[in-house]
Amino acid sequence: GRCRRKPTDPMLRFGDGQDGPFPVLCCAAFETRQLIEFTLNNRPIQVDVPADMPLLWVLRDELGLTGTKYGCGIAQCGACTVHLNGGAVRSCVVPVGSVAGAQVRTIEGLAGPDTLHAVQAAWIEEQVPQCGYCQPGMIMAVSAFLAENPEPADDEIDRAITNICRCGTYPRVRKAIHRAARSLAGDIEKT
Question: Does the first or last residue of the chain, that is N or C, have fewer Cβ atoms within 10 Å of its Cβ?
Answer without folding.
Answer: N
